[in-house]
Each structure stands twice: as C-alpha cells, then as structure tokens.
Design goal:
Layout: E1 7-8, H1 9-18, H2 22-37, E2 41-42, E3 63-64, H3 77-104, H4 110-136, E4 146-147, H5 149-156, H6 161-189, H7 193-224, H8 228-238, H9 250-255, H10 260-267
Parallel strand pairs: 1-2, 3-4
Amino acid sequence: MGGAALSSLPLRLAECLQIGEPATKVACVHTLYADWLAGRLDAAPKAARTPTDRPGQPDKPERVPPHKVPRRRADTLAGRAALIHALAHIEFNAINLALDAAHRFAGMPVAYYADWLRVADEEALHFDLLNGHLATLGHTYGDFKAHTGLWDMALKTAHDPLVRMALVPRVLEARGLDATPLIVDKLKAVNDLRMVEILAIIERDEIGHVAIGSRWFGWLCAARGLEPEATFRQLLVDYDAPPLKPPFNIAARRQAGFSEPELDWLSGL
C-alpha cells in the first residue's frame, strides 16, 4: 500500500494567497506550514506556477496613498490604536509577500521554500498578536485607513528572486528593524507593556526574516558571479528603493546578515 498522495505546494500557496478574509488567511497559512513540516506537500521546485499579482485583500481597511494616512501619536488611545493598526497592516501584507516569495519563483532549492513558508507562518502569528491587542483597545483590523505601498515592491521585483531578496527583506523589513526601538520607547512611555512584549517577539522573528533574505541574496549573487555589496547598492538605485534613513539598528542588522562593510556604509549615510 502506498502512502497518501502529496498535495502540490504551488497550488496550496496560491490558495492561501487568494484568501482575503484575515482570520481565514491566517488559518490557511498555519495549516500549510503544519502540512509542510509533516511532509505532506510536494515542493516540486520546477513546477509551473501562475503568479498571483493581486492577492486576496479584505474590503477594509480603506487603502489610500501613503501620504494620505494620518500621522499617529502614541500618547493618545486613538493614536496608539492607529499605530498598532498600521503595524497589523504591515504584517498582513508581509504574509502575502512571504507566500509570494515561495510561490512565484520556480527552480530554487527546497530549503528556499522551507524558509519562506516559515516566514509566512510567523507573519501570520504576528498579525494575530497585533489584531488581538488591537481588540483590547476597542478596534479591529480594518478600522483605520492604510496605505497601498507595501505590495508595490512585490510587483516591482516579480521578475527576479535576486531583486526580490535584495529589496523586500533587506530594505522593507530591515527598515522595520530600524523603527522598532523608537516605537518601543513610545509604548513604554504610555505603559503599554503587552505591546512591548509583542514587539519583542516580532523583532526576534524579523531579524530571522531579514537573515533569510540576506542568505538567499548572497546565494543568488554567488550563483551569478556577482559581488553582493556592490550589487545591493546598485539595485537600490535601479529600482528607486525607499531611501535608507538613520537611525539604523546596527546590532539587529548585523544579526540579520548585513556585512561589516555594509554596516560601515550605512553608518556613513
């Protein structure tokens, strides 16, 4: 008697990508990762894929250009709720970005897909933690406006995993590492210690996510005979990446795979 047939990883990734309702998407991702760990999925790295350029999104939040999202002050209850909502929105989009990294790019080593499935599972946990804390403030995901910019970088980097690894984990997620100490200080000032705990979990995991991006960026550069540091700096220019602004969380970036020459370069900006 043969074992149960394996289900297709690309098909299961597409299924989770297309779900818009947040709780259902989170459950889909957790089940997907559990099935991966249990050996129930066929990675088939070279399997044909039809990329999903418009992943599922809930009807709310209302999405507006970044400059139209109101500024958030953490020293008022409404401002703190809006801040946490903004972080939840980032994490919801990060679920889609991780799923897309695993779904879109055929022909990578199986370890690559394992890494990005783990990232998707952790981003889903982060979203749940933030949305749960938001509920204690009388709100839920969708109650505030949110910006449209996060998925744009997925589309700009859709043609090449090397560009994706450079500009999503090593730029967008690394900016989150830089911002975390500032946000923690604001939350400590208003004594929101549960939110400080949640951010510690998120920061720990996000260091790992940026490290995964750094590892696969380096792997792809080596495979193509490219010098990583010069290539990274050139991609920032070629793709009009968001500007790198201090203060930089040098310790977290070092843990996340940034080289000492890169950290020296950042420190000089």
